[in-house]
Amino acid sequence: MKNFSFHNPTRIHFGKGTIARIADEVPRDARILITYGGGSIKKNGTLDQVREALKDHKSITEFGGIEPNPSFETLMEAVALAKQENIDFLLAVGGGSVIDGTKFIAAAIPFEGDPWTILSEHARIHQAIPAGNVLTLPATGSESNSGSVITRRATNDKLAFSSPEVFPQFTVLDPETTYSLPQGQTANGVVDAFVHVMEQYLTTRENAPVQDRYAEGLLLTLIEQGPVVLKQPREYESRATIMWAANQALNGLIGVGVPHDWSTHMIGHEITALFGLDHAQTLAIVLPSVMHVMREEKASKLLQYADRIWGIKEGNDQEKMDSAISKTREFFEQMGIKTRLSDYGIEESAIADLVDQLKRHNMTALGEKQNITPEVATQILRHAA
Ligand code: NZQ
Ligand code: ZN
User: Fold this and answer.
1) Do residues 33 and 143 share a domain?
2) Which residue range forms the structural domain that includes residue 53?
3) Which pLDDT belongs to residue 342?
4) In a domain, 225, yes or no
5) What is the pLDDT of residues 296-313, one digit of tens each?
6) What is the mean pLDDT of residues 94-108?
7) Is 296 inside any structural domain?
8) Which residue, 39, 46, 234, 326, is most buried by CB atoms nearer than 10 A?
């Protein structure tokens, strides 16, 4: 196991009725900006619960319209509003996009210089406005991590930043807020969480049995409960299990002391930037092909995954790896998420553009061994066609 330091400062309130807890989490005298997306929180009653919880708070402004794959352009409107209103606390209510967007707003308000450089040049963030959130879509883990992914529409850039300054102070995970999710978003969440685990698990071998078994527990749980929430969207226990699993998949814990990959995510971000696919759709396309192309260096963990996750005992090593990759693809398809570029109308001729995007963003040495060069990324995308 490699050395590590682990600190996750986000307080988690989990369960039915816990939105009321924000009454004590948000300072009474704060000038609050509630941020949200396209309106799902109005339809499913979440915003009403938030307003009720904050009824004794004096200063509340609202900013809606943060899109899926939140845009720099929209977020800068929120930054202007926040400055005008002297906002000093941000409350994000929604999915990963609203929470990611709110992290950017929090960092951009006090930032000196062009806030886009937070993404384009990883400019250091020295301070951020304090923030908390109410999560309505279990998927990204953004609710209690320090990462954020922002898209600049004008230039087709989808870039990530991370800073300890933007860790949320608290998150509320009430599984009942997720009953209203459309099937496709429920499935996206399960697949995103699954791939977060895989990016921290399916790498080169490291002597880290605790992390391995945490990761395997999450994978087995997602495989078991994912199909249940699709069939029974109002089944509380399954919704709760998925919400907790997605949180644990990317709150930092399973990734301590082990190598990380993240190539599936970086290649996937370029597919979203150019073609607008949902984040999880891109992951379902790319991961099986990363597993296929990088099978030799991942062999030891891939065989462990085949055995412990899918119970594959028959065949030689190559056959076992093939079966494990097929099982992974079948699971995504079972969740209703297609796994080929062609399923989304993306032709092989687009692969060169996707690889150019990777080069433009300096993503030329991806993977746990930094050996996914543009040439290897091309092979991966060809295999995903
Ligand atoms: O905008 P509204 O109206 O709220 O509707 C949203 C949106 O259309 C809807 N939705 C959310 N909760 C709902 C609901 N509809 C009905 N009932 C509810 N309870 O779902 C749609 C998608 O929402 P979005 O927030 O975009 O989805 P998700 O949570 O999957 O977030 C995806 C974004 O997170 C980034 C992705 O790249 C993408 O931009 N990621 C962030 C990460 C992080 N910060 O650590 C890691 C991830 O790997 C990921 O890259
Ligand atoms: Zn993801």
Assistant:
1) yes
2) 11-178
3) 98
4) yes
5) 999 999 999 999 999 999
6) 98
7) yes
8) 46
